Amino acid sequence: MKTDNNSSLNGVIIINKPKEYTSHDIVNIIRKKLNIKKVGHTGTLDPNATGVLPILIGTATKVSKYLVEHDKEYITTIKLGKKTDTGDSEGKIIKEDNSIKNISKEQIESVIKGFIGKQKQIPPIYSSIKINGKKLYEYAREGKQIDIKPREIEIYNIKLKEYNNCEITIDVACSKGTYIRTLCEDIAERLGTVGYMKELKRTKVDRFKIENSITLDKLEDANIEQKIISIEEIFINKMKLDLNNRKLELFLNGVQLSYELENGVYRIYNNNEFIGLGIIENKLLKRDVVI
Fold first, then answer.
1. Range list of β-strands (E), the chain
2. Quick count: other Cβ atoms within 10 Å of Cβ 260?
3. Same domain for 192 and 81
4. Residues 6+ apart with CB under 8 A from 208
5. 70-104 per-position pLDDT tens digit
6. Predicted confidence band at 6 (pLDDT cuts at 50, 70, 90)?
7. CA-CA to 267 of 20 to 30 Å: which in 213, 233, 260, 278?
8. What is the CATH number of the domain that holds 285?
9. Cα separations (Å) of 231 from 96, 201, 204, 234, 267?
10. 269 and 193 in a common domain
């Protein structure tokens, strides 16, 4: 399917990202395949990882600020007995443990349950977090030591899916900012050995689920519009405000309107037609995103 740059396509499409593609690669592919200039994503997914990557199209790029920091779910596989400098399968092996004792399924389940809850986690040195204007992986590549401050995260749930041949596969539901690579290394350490993240698949970002995603080869299907989640649907849980014609005119012209309502984001309508989003701050409604 081809559209022009004046297309009415606006919303979020959930891509099931394959390996060896960066998030920016996916954005460029969608721009070309759908012939749309305004395309963005809601947060990077490592090239070595697969799964849910919400992509913003058209006017939806303006709502990215509301979609970038959400809880996530993953399926990840930990390879026990080897440690890499990057914490995943892309790195160099820097430590090996050839004397791994027999670890039972019960031991693993007991250990992973201990990670449920709020905790401090130190991000990996091979990450894109910036310190003093420089990304951590840049310091790592230069061989420089840097003091990395721990961050508070929360693991909501962990379930063991499979354990076979020194490989543990788990389901993880966690807060924003959680590094699964670090979690994998920490689990291995508590099991008395070393390990790294062998595989990572993101299955959910907020309300965006893997079962509702599409693969890159399906992007040109004639029914692609049916896969796009509209801005109205994304914010369906936000309160609705229906403005009359006069108030709508003022709203669209940037005039703030008085409402005795709580601060927050609201869906704006006129005669039950969705107009966009507004924000109420200190009893005043102001325009945010108009479709």
1. 11-17, 39-41, 50-57, 72-80, 82-84, 93-96, 117-121, 130-131, 134-135, 151-164, 167-174, 195-205, 208-209, 240-242, 257-258, 264-270, 273-281, 284-290
2. 6
3. yes
4. 12, 14, 52, 54, 229
5. 899 999 999 999 999 889 998 899 999 988 878 99
6. very low
7. 213
8. 2.30.130.10
9. 49, 26, 19, 5, 10
10. no
- Residues 44 and 68: their CA atoms lie apart, in Å, by 10
Contact criterion met (CB below 8 Å) for 283 and 261: yes
Q: How far apart are CA 203 and CA 215, in angstroms?
A: 14
Q: Is the pLDDT of residue 280 over 80?
A: yes
Helix (H, G, I), strand (E, B) or coil at 115: coil
Asked if residue 273 belongs to a domain, the reply is yes
3-state secondary structure of 246: helix
Domain of 45, CATH number, reads: 3.30.2350.10
Same domain, residue pair 272 and 283: yes
* Cα 260 to Cα 107: distance, rounded to the nearest angstrom: 55
Tens of pLDDT, residue by residue over 32-71, are: 988 889 999 987 888 889 999 999 999 999 998 888 878 9
Residues 88 and 168 in one domain: yes
> CB neighbours (10 Å) of residue 169?
17
> Which of the following is catalytic: 25, 46, 88, 217?
46
71 is catalytic: no
- CB neighbour list of residue 15: distance below 8 Å, 6 or more residues apart: 26, 30, 52, 53, 54, 55, 213, 214, 215, 216
Q: Are residues 79 and 37 in the same domain?
A: no
Domain count, the chain: 3
pTM of the complete model beyond 0.90: no
- Whether 249 and 161 map to the same domain: the answer is no
Domain assignment of residue 40, given as a range: 11-62+207-230
Chain centre distance of CA 109: 26
